[in-house]
Write the structure tokens for this entry.
Amino acid sequence: MIVPLEHVLFLSTILFILGLGCVLARRNLIMILIGVEIMLNAVGLTLVGASAFWQQVDGQIMVIFLMAMTSAEVSISLAMVVYLNRRKGTVDVRAFDEMRG
Amino acid sequence: MNPLLLFLIPLLPLLGGVFNACCGSRLPQRLVAAVAVLSVAGSFLSSLLLWPLGAGEGTRTVLFSWLQSGGFRADAGILFDPLAAVMTLMVTGVATLIHLYAAGYMEHDENQARFFALLNLFVFAMLCIVLADNLLFLFLGWEGVGFCSYGLIGFWYRKTENASAGRKAFIVTRIGDLFFAIALLWLFREFGTILIEQINARAVELDPLLLTVLTLLLLGGACGKSAQLPLMTWLPDAMAGPTPVSALIHAATMVTAGVYLLCRMFPLVSLSTTGMAAIALVGVLTALYAASCAVAQREIKRVLAYSTMSQIGYMFFAVGVGSVSGAMFHLLTHAFFKALLFMGAGCVIHLAGNENDIYRMGGLKRKSPQVFWLFLIGILCLAGTPLTGGFFSKDEILLTAFARGDGFSAILWGLGVLTAGLTSFYSFRLLYLVFFGEPRQAEKGHSVSPLMLWTLPLLALFGLFGGLLNLPHLFGGHQWLSHWLGQPAGVSLSLGTELGLLLLMLIFFGGGWLIAHLRYRRFPGDEQADWRSFLLNGWQFDRFYEFILVRPYRTVCRFCWQGGDKALIDGIMDGISRLCLHWGGYARKLTTGQVAFYLQGFAWGLLLIVGWFLLSAVK
């Protein structure tokens, strides 16, 4: 393996934290979804790196599954975003607080 | 004759009652009344036909075993001995006449089905008391009559005072029932059986002290049912019920159940000298107390209620001086003439336009001579006019007491004679105020239905000639009742003494009548004085009980309600719920509805978990 595992893990951690920061900091629904995608991809990167490190194919299969699942998730969540936008005319999460206790 | 036929006697009224209770409301009212009357009349006829079974030792028969557990056994069994036979015949006979009368009296009432169902059930329960061969079956009837009495006193329950009178009767008699129940259980513990015959036969085995206690407990039970001191306050109020009910339950039958119980258990009761003295004392004191109250009453039915109480006092007195036949004799004659008086009072109330107050009656003699003559017969019997039934029975009791000869009996005898004078006075006072003088009632009365009127002459006949049942030797009789009950009177007084006592009774009777005649022949105007209101309210016993029992009880209840339930239990529960609400308010603030806030929560949680893993990995 040319790239050491530590580097892969380091990169994916940075990606994950960036994604998390995006999710937490942004108020725009679409940006939050993008943050979630980045976090998912960070996890995928870890899996691929681990798969290469142990010379086993399981991790890569997981990533294939992950991609399929992610595409489904994105299509559903974008549809919901469109719906929410129609309801309130905005995609700001602060507008959607009807579940307040 | 098949002894099982005896069960027809109680079962016919039961059938009638159940039938009326189930489908009476859907049938024409006439049919309801007919079913009720016929079922009781059938019961009367069967007791008449089965009379021979009661002779001598009597007949014992069992229909089925009611309860059985270990050594305990209670049957639905009948003991038809001379005592029960006499009582059965009286109960069913008087009940039949009163049912007939009630059919006329309740003609225009809407709830005849309920009325007749309760009345029939009452007769059933009363017959259970009379016929039962064991104490538990007797107790069933005992409670049954209590319940029916409650339902019938409060029959017109829409008026609060009627309903509370029913409740009072129920609760006060229940206190007596408690004593009876204790006696019942105690007897079972001592003998291992509740058969009346066996208990009576084996009573001599008991310790004298225990016998006294048991006798006093039985006396307590009898006092409750028979409205004797100190449990007598319910009877005057019980007059709130319809008049036929007062006649049947509160004059002729139920209130005599206590006397009957003591007669039934006489072999046991008579073994305790103290117990017998207590019975006699209670009887005489009640007789005197009630007679003194009757002197000042204003309501016609209350006068009769107090006189009933007083006459039952005489019966207790008779039991207490050891004369079962005297008690039963007076019980029979009293049942006839008191039922007559009550039903006559019902007619009077109708004639006077639903007026109860005897000071607002008067002049009814001209209005309805027939009612006057019938009522007069009742009054004569009650007052103990010589040669009427009431005279002979009362005389026998006093004679027996006098013949005992000891000081205690002599004092009681003196009080009994005094009461006889009072009885004569208040009886004639009632008669004069109601029937003589000018009419004083405000409303015009309505006529009396013929059904009501035509049941009375028969009772009048029985009341008048009831003395023949047990005519003393002095008058050429043979004391049939005493012989039938197997208790030939042991009174042996010289002819001179007996005639002297008779003269004394005559003097007291005549004195009572004379005072009443002088005072009430012309209407003396409304009387309102302090000592009268004291007697009017029954020596303020109601207020006394209110003060020493009802009010403390109410205070305790209020404490339990306000202090125990409301403050303590509700306080703890409310406190817990308020605490939860308070803390829940804080928790509620966490759910802001902001997605970002939740996500932050995720992130912090994740950090925590990862941090924990890291820490444990470092270790």
The CA atoms of residues 43 and 64 of chain A lie 12 Å apart.
